[in-house]
């Protein structure tokens, strides 16, 4: 397949490199210092499953540089979705399928505002991978899974073709017949993991071991389930307890990308995680006090380290989380 990966960070860099290593024609869109480093030395992915290297010529600086891909993988931070959707529109109008492996439950709604009807597949990724330094992505652990599918339709030829590419690349992948539910199931877990590890400033092992923060973790996820069910998503009422049990199986040192961004003073996806639960809940009349509190606690950091900005970003950050 001709695959364009927009965003060469943890998700896009890891899965794109694995697909490229298996023989797919993969082009990455990157920017800033990451782009400069890849152009100089290529992209390196360090993983317990084996190191991968992508040549420098596989990266371009703009979506407009892409040449008729069969599939566009969106793997940018959520605040860039609107801008990327506008840029990708000509490719989708030319027949390219688009699948987002971003976090959150609002990503595909944003994409569909700009892309042709039917161009968007739903997707979720399960991987712990981050940019360690410009040009280098590090994969933690061995989990590396993709689930994707058509909205409201049976598995399509394009979904099956992408599945074949993933399996040939050694990626744990499957097509889902109810991708909206799958996206929400990941969202419930991610809201819990990101919100609690960031608010507590500790990995999941610390969060789940303390009675108070363990209760917080469960209730944050339970609120997300309640919001999803109110929106008509077929989530089991006890799904939060199931995810809490799943959290007990995770490596104690596991954290979230939002916690990683918080530690490094980067912008947070807060407004699309706990902030989104609070916002959606308010519109539906569903109480979400735990997620609202997390959104408020982390609000000063939503646009990055407030100390680095001299405190100037606090007001804007608060607005972003609401």
Sheet with the most strands, sense and barrel status: 10 strands, mixed
The helix fraction, in percent, is 40-55%
Uncertain regions spanning at least 5 consecutive residues: 312-322
Query: What's the structural domain tally?
Result: 2
CATH topology of the largest domain: Rossmann fold
Task: Please tally the helical runs, counting DSSP H or I stretches of 4 or more residues.
Answer: 13
- The topology string of helices and strands comes to EHEHEEEEHEHEEHEHHHHHHHH
CATH superfamily name of the largest domain?
NAD(P)-binding Rossmann-like Domain
Features:
322 residues, alpha/beta, Rossmann fold, N-(1-d-carboxylethyl)-l-norvaline Dehydrogenase, domain 2, ten-stranded mixed sheet, 13 helices, 10 strands, 45% helix, globular, disordered C terminus, 6PGD_dom2, 2-dehydropantoate 2-reductase activity, EC 1.1.1.169, 2-dehydropantoate 2-reductase, KPR_N
Model description:
The protein is α/β, with parallel strands linked by helices. It has 2 domains: 2-177, Rossmann fold, CATH 3.40.50.720; 181-321, N-(1-d-carboxylethyl)-l-norvaline Dehydrogenase, domain 2 (Orthogonal Bundle), CATH 1.10.1040.10. Helices cover 45% and strands 18% of the residues. It is built from 13 helices and 10 strands. The radius of gyration is 19 Å and the shape is globular. Mean pLDDT is 93; it is low at 312-322.
């Amino acid at each position: 397949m001709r695959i364009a990966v927009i965003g060469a960070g943890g998700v896009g860099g890891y899965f794109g490199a694995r697909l490229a290593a298996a023989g797919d024609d993969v082009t990455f869109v990157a920017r800033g210092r990451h782009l400069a480093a890849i152009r100089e030395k290529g992209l390196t992915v360090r993983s317990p499953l084996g190191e991968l290297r992508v040549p420098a010529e596989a990266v371009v600086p703009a979506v407009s540089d892409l040449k008729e891909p069969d599939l566009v993988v969106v793997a940018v931070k959520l605040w860039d979705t609107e801008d990327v959707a506008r840029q990708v529109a000509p490719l989708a109008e030319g027949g390219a399928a688009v699948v987002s492996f971003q976090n959150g439950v609002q990503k595909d709604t944003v994409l569909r505002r700009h892309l042709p009807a039917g161009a968007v597949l739903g997707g979720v990724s399960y991987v712990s991978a981050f940019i360690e330094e410009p040009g280098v992505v590090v994969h933690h652990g061995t989990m590396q899974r993709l689930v994707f599918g058509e909205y409201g339709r049976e598995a399509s030829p394009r979904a099956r073709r992408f599945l074949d590419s993933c399996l040939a690349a050694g990626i744990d992948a499957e097509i889902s017949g109810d991708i909206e539910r799958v996206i929400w199931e990941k969202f419930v877990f991610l809201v819990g993991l990101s919100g609690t590890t960031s608010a507590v400033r500790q990995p999941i092992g610390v969060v789940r071991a303390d009675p108070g923060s363990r209760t917080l973790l469960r209730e944050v996820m339970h609120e997300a389930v309640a919001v999803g069910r109110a929106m008509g998503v077929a989530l089991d009422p006890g799904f939060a307890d199931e995810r809490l049990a799943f959290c007990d199986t995770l490596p104690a040192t596991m954290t979230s990308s939002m916690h990683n961004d918080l530690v490094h003073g980067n912008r947070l996806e807060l407004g699309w995680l706990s902030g989104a639960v609070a916002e959606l809940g308010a519109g539906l009349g569903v109480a979400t006090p735990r997620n609202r509190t997390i959104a408020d606690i982390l609000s000063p950091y939503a646009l990055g380290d407030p100390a680095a900005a001299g405190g100037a970003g606090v007001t804007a950050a608060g607005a972003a989380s609401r």
